[in-house]
Amino acid sequence: MTDDPKARIVELCRQFYSMGWVSGTGGGVAIRQAGRVFMAPSGVQKERLRESDLFELDEDGNVTNSPSADRSLSQCAPLFFNAFRLRGAGAVLHNHSIHAVLATLVYETEFRVTHLEMMKGIRGTGYPDELVIPIIENTAHECDLADTMAEAMKSYPDSDAVLVRRHGVYVWGKDWVEAKTQAECYDYLFEAAVRMLQLGIDPTQKPTGTPCKHTG
Q1: What are phi and psi of 146, to 5 degrees?
Q2: How many other C-beta atoms are found inside a 10 Å radius of the C-beta of residue 9?
Q3: Is 142 noted as a catalytic residue in this protein?
Q4: Domain range list for the chain
Q5: Among residues 11, 51, 117, 142, which one is catalytic?
Q6: CATH class of the domain comprising 5-198
Q7: Of 42, 94, 159, 189, whose CA is between 20 and 30 Å from 16?
Q8: What tens digit of pLDDT does each residue of 133-183 get?
Q9: Helices within 70-132 (DSSP H only)
Q10: Torsions phi, psi of 28, nearest 5?
Q11: Which phi and psi angles does 211 have, rounded to 5°?
Q12: pTM for this predicted structure
């Protein structure tokens, strides 16, 4: 990928579309670089996104460069800026992964797992640790999630993600590489936890021995 943040966002959106994360114009990506924020618009098919469709903002959230008049600033903007302001993030990703949605249906207020190898892809987390991600309730309009998300981020300072019930997940990192890596690891863990629960295995419990082998 190129170092150009606009080209990078276009490439990431196409990749995430192929993964089923941003279908139906959902989801988004924002990257902060050199005091500027570049952001995918709202209501645009992400696999067809062009660099000319992107918004450019300053670090106070003011739009400094707009695309064509038929493009709207993402409703995710206040939530993206939560990560920029509260975490010093360099990139934020929002997706509607079915694995993230299902995880919010089987956990109450927190997503918790332990002893899964892909946890090592999350900042500051190792295999024997417990990974905890807050879950907040969805709202009719995405921008109305900003305050609740900020509260969750303050309450869970070690988490680089916030799940939204029946909606999806926000993930951030120091740059787009870390944000992408963590988003992929989180998605794996969401799916693994849901499948474990279906098998009657508690994802929050430390393994105690060799599991029984299937003999059929």
Answers
A1: -55, -50
A2: 25
A3: no
A4: 5-198
A5: 117
A6: alpha beta
A7: 159
A8: 999 999 999 989 999 999 999 999 999 999 999 999 999 999 999 999 999
A9: 77-87, 98-106
A10: 180, 170
A11: -65, 155
A12: 0.94
